[in-house]
Amino acid sequence: MKIIQKALAFVGLLSLCGLFIFALQDAPTDENFETKLINDYNVYALQIPDNLNFAGEPVPLENPDILERMDRELLVNTYWQSNGLLMFKRAKKYFPIIEPILAKYGVPDDFKYLAVIESGLTNAVSPAGARGVWQIMPATGRENGLEVNKNVDERYNLEKSTEVACKYLIKAKEQLGSWTLAAAAYNAGNAGVSRRLREQGVTKYYDLLLGEETGRYLFRIVALKEILSNPKNYGFNFREKDLYTNVPTYKVEVDTAVTDFTKFAQRFGINYKVLKLHNPWLREPHLNNKSRKQYYLEIPQEGYYN
Fold first, then answer.
1. Is the domain of 229 the same as that of 137?
2. How confident is the model at residue 9 (pLDDT cuts 50, 70, 90)?
Protein backbone atom coordinates (compact mmCIF):
# COMPACT_ATOMS: atom_id res chain seq x y z
CA MET A 1 0.00 0.00 0.00
CA LYS A 2 2.80 2.43 0.94
CA ILE A 3 4.58 1.63 -2.35
CA ILE A 4 1.41 2.47 -4.31
CA GLN A 5 0.95 5.73 -2.37
CA LYS A 6 4.57 6.73 -3.05
CA ALA A 7 4.14 5.91 -6.73
CA LEU A 8 0.98 8.00 -6.96
CA ALA A 9 2.70 10.90 -5.19
CA PHE A 10 5.60 10.69 -7.62
CA VAL A 11 3.24 10.69 -10.62
CA GLY A 12 1.43 13.69 -9.15
CA LEU A 13 4.72 15.55 -8.71
CA LEU A 14 5.69 14.84 -12.31
CA SER A 15 2.31 16.11 -13.49
CA LEU A 16 2.70 19.30 -11.46
CA CYS A 17 6.18 19.89 -12.88
CA GLY A 18 4.83 19.35 -16.36
CA LEU A 19 2.08 21.88 -15.81
CA PHE A 20 4.62 24.38 -14.48
CA ILE A 21 6.92 23.94 -17.49
CA PHE A 22 3.95 24.20 -19.82
CA ALA A 23 2.84 27.38 -18.08
CA LEU A 24 6.28 28.90 -18.56
CA GLN A 25 6.34 27.92 -22.22
CA ASP A 26 2.96 29.52 -22.79
CA ALA A 27 3.47 32.57 -20.60
CA PRO A 28 1.79 35.66 -22.04
CA THR A 29 3.87 38.15 -23.96
CA ASP A 30 3.41 41.87 -24.38
CA GLU A 31 3.03 42.98 -27.96
CA ASN A 32 6.13 45.18 -27.69
CA PHE A 33 8.44 43.01 -25.61
CA GLU A 34 10.67 40.44 -27.24
CA THR A 35 10.88 38.14 -24.23
CA LYS A 36 8.03 36.35 -22.51
CA LEU A 37 6.63 37.72 -19.28
CA ILE A 38 7.55 34.69 -17.19
CA ASN A 39 7.94 34.42 -13.46
CA ASP A 40 11.70 34.07 -13.18
CA TYR A 41 14.18 36.22 -11.30
CA ASN A 42 17.94 36.20 -11.22
CA VAL A 43 20.48 38.33 -9.41
CA TYR A 44 23.81 38.90 -11.11
CA ALA A 45 27.08 40.49 -10.10
CA LEU A 46 27.53 43.65 -12.15
CA GLN A 47 30.31 44.37 -14.59
CA ILE A 48 31.50 47.85 -13.66
CA PRO A 49 32.41 49.90 -16.74
CA ASP A 50 36.06 50.96 -16.91
CA ASN A 51 35.42 54.57 -17.91
CA LEU A 52 32.96 55.94 -15.38
CA ASN A 53 33.16 59.68 -14.89
CA PHE A 54 31.28 62.65 -13.52
CA ALA A 55 31.22 65.82 -15.62
CA GLY A 56 34.21 64.46 -17.55
CA GLU A 57 36.22 63.88 -14.37
CA PRO A 58 37.13 60.16 -14.11
CA VAL A 59 36.21 57.92 -11.21
CA PRO A 60 39.52 56.27 -10.12
CA LEU A 61 38.31 52.67 -10.22
CA GLU A 62 41.89 51.37 -10.02
CA ASN A 63 41.64 52.22 -6.32
CA PRO A 64 40.11 49.14 -4.61
CA ASP A 65 38.17 51.25 -2.10
CA ILE A 66 36.65 53.34 -4.88
CA LEU A 67 35.80 50.21 -6.87
CA GLU A 68 33.93 48.65 -3.93
CA ARG A 69 32.01 51.83 -3.16
CA MET A 70 31.02 52.22 -6.80
CA ASP A 71 29.94 48.58 -6.94
CA ARG A 72 27.75 49.10 -3.89
CA GLU A 73 25.81 51.98 -5.40
CA LEU A 74 25.36 50.25 -8.74
CA LEU A 75 24.02 47.16 -6.98
CA VAL A 76 21.73 49.06 -4.64
CA ASN A 77 20.20 51.11 -7.43
CA THR A 78 20.00 48.27 -9.95
CA TYR A 79 18.14 45.91 -7.62
CA TRP A 80 15.84 48.54 -6.15
CA GLN A 81 13.79 47.99 -9.28
CA SER A 82 10.60 49.86 -8.40
CA ASN A 83 12.52 53.01 -7.56
CA GLY A 84 14.63 52.60 -10.68
CA LEU A 85 11.62 52.41 -12.96
CA LEU A 86 10.16 55.51 -11.35
CA MET A 87 13.41 57.37 -12.03
CA PHE A 88 13.22 56.46 -15.73
CA LYS A 89 9.60 57.59 -15.87
CA ARG A 90 10.18 60.89 -14.10
CA ALA A 91 13.41 61.63 -15.96
CA LYS A 92 11.52 61.61 -19.26
CA LYS A 93 9.16 64.23 -17.81
CA TYR A 94 11.59 66.55 -16.02
CA PHE A 95 15.00 66.27 -17.73
CA PRO A 96 13.78 68.27 -20.77
CA ILE A 97 13.11 71.18 -18.37
CA ILE A 98 16.39 70.84 -16.46
CA GLU A 99 18.81 70.18 -19.33
CA PRO A 100 18.53 73.49 -21.23
CA ILE A 101 18.91 75.49 -18.00
CA LEU A 102 22.11 73.63 -17.11
CA ALA A 103 23.38 74.29 -20.64
CA LYS A 104 22.45 77.99 -20.39
CA TYR A 105 24.62 78.39 -17.30
CA GLY A 106 27.48 76.23 -18.57
CA VAL A 107 26.92 73.58 -15.89
CA PRO A 108 27.67 70.02 -17.08
CA ASP A 109 24.65 67.97 -18.05
CA ASP A 110 25.62 65.30 -15.50
CA PHE A 111 24.26 67.52 -12.74
CA LYS A 112 20.73 66.52 -13.67
CA TYR A 113 21.52 63.23 -11.90
CA LEU A 114 22.30 65.21 -8.75
CA ALA A 115 18.65 66.26 -8.76
CA VAL A 116 17.68 62.59 -9.05
CA ILE A 117 19.48 61.59 -5.88
CA GLU A 118 18.50 64.74 -4.01
CA SER A 119 14.76 64.29 -4.39
CA GLY A 120 13.90 61.42 -6.71
CA LEU A 121 12.67 64.21 -9.04
CA THR A 122 9.82 65.01 -6.65
CA ASN A 123 9.01 68.08 -4.58
CA ALA A 124 10.53 66.48 -1.53
CA VAL A 125 10.64 68.00 1.95
CA SER A 126 13.65 67.35 4.20
CA PRO A 127 13.70 67.45 8.01
CA ALA A 128 16.34 70.21 7.75
CA GLY A 129 14.00 72.46 5.79
CA ALA A 130 15.17 71.89 2.22
CA ARG A 131 12.40 71.84 -0.38
CA GLY A 132 11.74 70.96 -4.00
CA VAL A 133 13.46 68.90 -6.67
CA TRP A 134 16.82 70.54 -5.91
CA GLN A 135 16.36 70.49 -2.11
CA ILE A 136 17.18 74.16 -1.59
CA MET A 137 17.37 75.60 1.91
CA PRO A 138 15.37 78.79 2.65
CA ALA A 139 18.44 81.03 3.06
CA THR A 140 20.04 79.76 -0.15
CA GLY A 141 16.82 80.37 -2.04
CA ARG A 142 16.42 83.92 -0.76
CA GLU A 143 20.09 84.74 -1.35
CA ASN A 144 19.61 83.77 -4.99
CA GLY A 145 16.42 85.74 -5.59
CA LEU A 146 13.68 83.23 -4.78
CA GLU A 147 10.59 84.25 -2.87
CA VAL A 148 10.24 81.92 0.11
CA ASN A 149 7.35 82.40 2.52
CA LYS A 150 4.07 80.77 3.57
CA ASN A 151 2.19 82.22 0.61
CA VAL A 152 4.73 81.64 -2.17
CA ASP A 153 7.72 79.30 -2.15
CA GLU A 154 9.61 79.40 -5.42
CA ARG A 155 11.86 76.53 -4.38
CA TYR A 156 8.99 74.45 -5.78
CA ASN A 157 9.30 76.18 -9.16
CA LEU A 158 11.47 73.77 -11.15
CA GLU A 159 12.79 76.32 -13.63
CA LYS A 160 13.71 78.92 -10.99
CA SER A 161 15.15 76.40 -8.55
CA THR A 162 17.30 74.86 -11.30
CA GLU A 163 18.74 78.30 -11.95
CA VAL A 164 19.55 78.69 -8.24
CA ALA A 165 21.24 75.27 -8.23
CA CYS A 166 23.34 76.33 -11.23
CA LYS A 167 24.46 79.53 -9.51
CA TYR A 168 25.44 77.61 -6.37
CA LEU A 169 27.37 74.99 -8.33
CA ILE A 170 29.27 77.55 -10.40
CA LYS A 171 30.43 79.32 -7.22
CA ALA A 172 31.42 76.00 -5.66
CA LYS A 173 33.42 75.03 -8.75
CA GLU A 174 35.24 78.37 -8.69
CA GLN A 175 36.10 77.95 -5.03
CA LEU A 176 36.95 74.24 -4.93
CA GLY A 177 38.44 73.67 -8.37
CA SER A 178 36.47 70.72 -9.75
CA TRP A 179 32.91 69.80 -10.62
CA THR A 180 33.20 66.67 -8.48
CA LEU A 181 33.99 68.75 -5.40
CA ALA A 182 31.26 71.21 -6.37
CA ALA A 183 28.77 68.33 -6.34
CA ALA A 184 30.02 67.22 -2.92
CA ALA A 185 29.65 70.80 -1.69
CA TYR A 186 26.03 70.79 -2.77
CA ASN A 187 25.54 68.16 -0.06
CA ALA A 188 28.01 69.27 2.61
CA GLY A 189 28.48 72.98 1.88
CA ASN A 190 31.47 74.81 0.42
CA ALA A 191 32.92 75.55 3.84
CA GLY A 192 32.52 71.97 5.01
CA VAL A 193 34.27 70.48 1.98
CA SER A 194 37.03 73.14 2.08
CA ARG A 195 37.68 72.39 5.73
CA ARG A 196 37.92 68.65 5.16
CA LEU A 197 40.33 69.10 2.25
CA ARG A 198 42.52 71.35 4.35
CA GLU A 199 42.44 69.14 7.44
CA GLN A 200 43.29 65.98 5.50
CA GLY A 201 45.85 67.54 3.19
CA VAL A 202 44.27 66.34 -0.07
CA THR A 203 42.78 68.02 -3.13
CA LYS A 204 40.33 65.45 -4.52
CA TYR A 205 36.93 64.16 -3.40
CA TYR A 206 37.95 60.53 -3.82
CA ASP A 207 40.85 61.01 -1.37
CA LEU A 208 38.66 62.42 1.39
CA LEU A 209 37.46 60.51 4.43
CA LEU A 210 33.87 61.70 4.79
CA GLY A 211 30.72 60.88 6.68
CA GLU A 212 28.25 58.34 5.33
CA GLU A 213 26.02 60.68 3.34
CA THR A 214 28.62 62.86 1.64
CA GLY A 215 30.95 59.88 1.27
CA ARG A 216 28.33 58.09 -0.84
CA TYR A 217 27.09 61.20 -2.63
CA LEU A 218 29.17 61.17 -5.82
CA PHE A 219 28.98 57.41 -6.13
CA ARG A 220 25.20 57.56 -6.03
CA ILE A 221 25.15 60.27 -8.70
CA VAL A 222 27.48 58.30 -10.98
CA ALA A 223 25.49 55.09 -10.41
CA LEU A 224 22.22 56.76 -11.39
CA LYS A 225 23.90 58.34 -14.41
CA GLU A 226 25.20 54.96 -15.57
CA ILE A 227 21.91 53.11 -15.00
CA LEU A 228 19.65 55.77 -16.50
CA SER A 229 21.95 56.05 -19.51
CA ASN A 230 22.09 52.29 -20.13
CA PRO A 231 18.81 50.72 -18.95
CA LYS A 232 19.18 47.44 -20.86
CA ASN A 233 22.58 46.77 -19.32
CA TYR A 234 20.96 46.77 -15.88
CA GLY A 235 17.84 44.78 -16.66
CA PHE A 236 15.29 47.58 -17.04
CA ASN A 237 12.70 46.97 -19.72
CA PHE A 238 10.11 49.53 -20.72
CA ARG A 239 8.55 51.15 -23.73
CA GLU A 240 8.51 54.82 -24.58
CA LYS A 241 4.80 54.95 -23.83
CA ASP A 242 5.48 53.67 -20.28
CA LEU A 243 7.34 56.87 -19.39
CA TYR A 244 5.78 60.03 -18.02
CA THR A 245 5.49 63.12 -20.19
CA ASN A 246 4.78 66.76 -19.47
CA VAL A 247 1.32 68.12 -20.12
CA PRO A 248 1.67 71.11 -22.48
CA THR A 249 0.99 74.41 -20.75
CA TYR A 250 0.87 78.10 -21.44
CA LYS A 251 1.74 80.96 -19.09
CA VAL A 252 -0.73 83.39 -17.62
CA GLU A 253 0.62 86.60 -16.10
CA VAL A 254 -0.74 87.67 -12.74
CA ASP A 255 0.30 91.01 -11.21
CA THR A 256 -2.47 91.48 -8.64
CA ALA A 257 -3.71 89.62 -5.61
CA VAL A 258 -5.84 86.52 -6.18
CA THR A 259 -8.40 85.99 -3.45
CA ASP A 260 -9.63 82.55 -4.50
CA PHE A 261 -7.60 80.15 -6.65
CA THR A 262 -10.55 77.77 -6.94
CA LYS A 263 -12.53 80.37 -8.86
CA PHE A 264 -9.39 81.48 -10.70
CA ALA A 265 -8.79 77.92 -11.95
CA GLN A 266 -12.38 77.53 -13.10
CA ARG A 267 -11.90 80.46 -15.45
CA PHE A 268 -9.45 78.29 -17.40
CA GLY A 269 -11.54 75.13 -17.37
CA ILE A 270 -9.55 73.35 -14.64
CA ASN A 271 -9.93 72.77 -10.92
CA TYR A 272 -7.79 73.89 -7.98
CA LYS A 273 -5.95 70.55 -7.77
CA VAL A 274 -4.80 70.78 -11.40
CA LEU A 275 -3.71 74.39 -10.90
CA LYS A 276 -1.60 73.30 -7.91
CA LEU A 277 -0.11 70.34 -9.79
CA HIS A 278 1.34 72.74 -12.34
CA ASN A 279 2.18 75.51 -9.88
CA PRO A 280 3.33 73.84 -6.67
CA TRP A 281 5.08 77.05 -5.58
CA LEU A 282 1.64 78.47 -4.73
CA ARG A 283 1.44 77.43 -1.10
CA GLU A 284 -1.97 78.83 -0.13
CA PRO A 285 -5.36 78.96 -1.88
CA HIS A 286 -4.87 82.67 -2.47
CA LEU A 287 -2.09 85.05 -3.56
CA ASN A 288 -1.31 88.06 -1.39
CA ASN A 289 0.87 90.02 -3.83
CA LYS A 290 0.71 93.39 -2.07
CA SER A 291 3.76 94.52 -4.06
CA ARG A 292 2.05 93.87 -7.43
CA LYS A 293 4.85 91.52 -8.44
CA GLN A 294 4.58 89.73 -11.79
CA TYR A 295 3.98 86.00 -11.49
CA TYR A 296 3.53 83.53 -14.31
CA LEU A 297 1.19 80.61 -13.75
CA GLU A 298 1.34 77.46 -15.83
CA ILE A 299 -2.10 76.57 -17.24
CA PRO A 300 -2.51 73.19 -18.98
CA GLN A 301 -3.76 73.21 -22.52
CA GLU A 302 -7.39 72.31 -22.99
CA GLY A 303 -8.45 68.69 -23.04
CA TYR A 304 -5.80 67.03 -20.87
CA TYR A 305 -7.82 66.79 -17.65
CA ASN A 306 -11.33 66.38 -19.04
1. yes
2. very low
